[in-house]
Amino acid sequence: MTREQIALVRKSFDRLRPLPRGAGQDFYETLFALDPSLRPLFSTDVENQGAMFVVALGLALKGLDADADVDASLQELGRRHVLYGAKDIHFDTFREALLCMFAQRLGPDFTPEMAEAWRAAFDRISAVMKKSASDARA
Ligand code: HEM
Known about the structure:
Helix 2 packs across helix 3 (46-62) and helix 4 packs across helix 6 (112-137). The protein has helices at residues 3-14, 21-34, 46-62, 68-84, 88-106, 112-137. It is mostly helical. Protoporphyrin IX containing FE (HEM) is lined by residues 38, 41-44, 52-53, 56-57, 60, 77, 80-81, 84-86, 90-91, 94, 125-126, 129.
């Protein structure tokens, strides 16, 4: 990711404030609309789950400059996701739901450059989680 892209994801994430209620809830509603089979994997309500997801994402964004501590906590998060039943393919649905949520919340202020930067950021975060999940399964 370029420095500009990192700045763009952080800027658009800040625009979601006040965190974390609404944005996380919108995210999960979109996610379950895209893939209803994901719904039964979640035991908590979308409001709670949404809050946890958005907070975790915010922390992950701090690690985009290659912060080793953040990567270590993402690896742990990835390992826990094996038990949650998360599969690699699900990360693609998560990414699409995230982009939809931003487009809904920010409207035309969510530019194509921001969307591209978010794809790159989400893929970077997911890669760390997927790798540790795959190591844990092995
Ligand atoms: C960047 C991607 C993701 C982030 C930041 C994220 C974040 C989180 C966080 C913070 C939790 C709370 C529990 C914990 O900390 O261990 C959680 C739980 C969970 N996540 Fe994720 N997650 C991501 C991707 C996924 C994917 C792709 C799936 C696939 C289905 C998934 C399914 C779940 C489930 C089922 C739970 C447990 C819910 C429950 O106990 O009711 N997550 N996630």
